[in-house]
């Protein structure tokens, strides 16, 4: 009897063991990307997170219309540039703003002649919906006890713009007050918006588009036109590592198609410089680079 | 016949050694690959720069505090799971693996969301500020390693027969006395290696820390965060140097584990 029970127990254990192995085996198989089973032509896009919602839609539209697989990797503009540079792969570089495109051009990682502007961005203050701390202007951010955040100014374009806004508009004493309220810098554009949604800070200096990303939780307080130092833009260009330059150029051109433009418009992005200029003074420069003051820098190499 | 058996055993041994060496080589190749972007002249400059020194100090300090806190909870918890029976024991045991299933970023996000709730707000306003602050790093690291610490310590305690403690109790020792005088010395090496492993994991923790504590230089920028930020700035030479520094610290800690680890004796 004991022996029968023992055998049954062993058989049961064997059954469970076999089941576990089968689960691991099939889970493993399901994790192998379909592209590895043998794929047709595809495009690898390294994209900054500033344009994630519309960029994904445009990529899907392109796939549907042209039957080309588009693989998009989103992240901080600098992070995805590093990935592209190290992996020496990718057809498209699509950062969140012009700063990292300038770096990519300097390092000869994109074909400069293929660069196109997809949308424009304007820096703004973003607060929690309902504006519980009654923040109405840049100077309101100096009030003691506020908790402020910006994106990391060295690696995330919107952080660089935030520093430029602070440096352009505040005197040294005011800058000191603002920096005392600055409780964090975060690693990506989308997290700069998220920390307002999660009420982790009272305000951030981000893009005016943030309120469109999460209208239920974020409210935008526009800066005065004279406080905006530059208009940002989202550029796109063909990577020098592309295996199919004509196809990559085709994808870049698709971002200027009426379908793609209507997607960006629906998501609240500014499509022309004239639209952006409604928030700024007429001579406000568009894009370019900003040399971050030493006080905001970590130690750098290779720049 | 016997010769054939011996040959098979030698082949088995060779295969095992080959697997061990292949694994070692795999990691060595990864480290060597870093050298393709390594700039020797910048090594000392990066190592001795104030932000790197701050990140090293911050990582060592927070990982030590997180490990000590984790051990303070994990040791009694491991004892309870190993020696005692109580309702919900299996459920508690299962939850120890939660931080390994739930990615560190998810853990960090859960903590960040928790501090957005009413209870979280009260803790933040009346107690300690965690979000984007120094205690946030410790909490993030603690959340990642506490389950692992309990699991490792439970395994160590499971290997020691409860009879030793029972004998000590029968000779008049108190429960505490029996644990401290009998079980603890026997488990010491295993507990110590569990502590070192958890410390090393806390030093390398990134996802939960970056989500809960942010990336602010000279405030919450631990070594793994500094590596991420260097990569995010497209500064690959600095990235490789920081990785090598963190790897050096991590390997030193893990080598220490090898020195104190209790090897299983099969007689």
How many discrete structural domains of chain B?
A: 2
Structural class of chain A: alpha/beta
> Biggest β-sheet of chain A, characterized?
5 strands, mixed
Please give the order of strands in the largest beta sheet of chain A.
Answer: 2-1-3-10-4
For CATH, the homologous superfamily of the largest domain in chain A is named as: Periplasmic binding protein-like II
Describe the structure.
- The complex is a heterodimer of chains A (303) and B (267).
- Chain A contains eleven helices and ten strands.
- With 303 residues, chain A is an alpha/beta fold.
- Chain A folds into two domains: 143 residues, D-Maltodextrin-Binding Protein, domain 2 (3-Layer(aba) Sandwich); 105 residues, 3-Layer(aba) Sandwich (D-Maltodextrin-Binding Protein, domain 2), CATH 3.40.190.10.
- In chain A, the strands form two sheets. A five-stranded mixed β-sheet of chain A has the order 2-1-3-10-4.
- The longest helix of chain A is centred in the N-terminal third of the chain and has 30 residues.
- Chain A is globular and about 55 Å long.
- About 4% of the residues of chain A have low confidence.
- With 267 residues, chain B is mainly alpha-helical.
- Chain B has two domains: 37 residues; 219 residues, MetI-like (MetI-like fold, Orthogonal Bundle).
- In chain B, helix 3 packs parallel to helix 8, helix 8 packs across helix 10 and helix 10 packs antiparallel against helix 13.
- Chain B is globular.
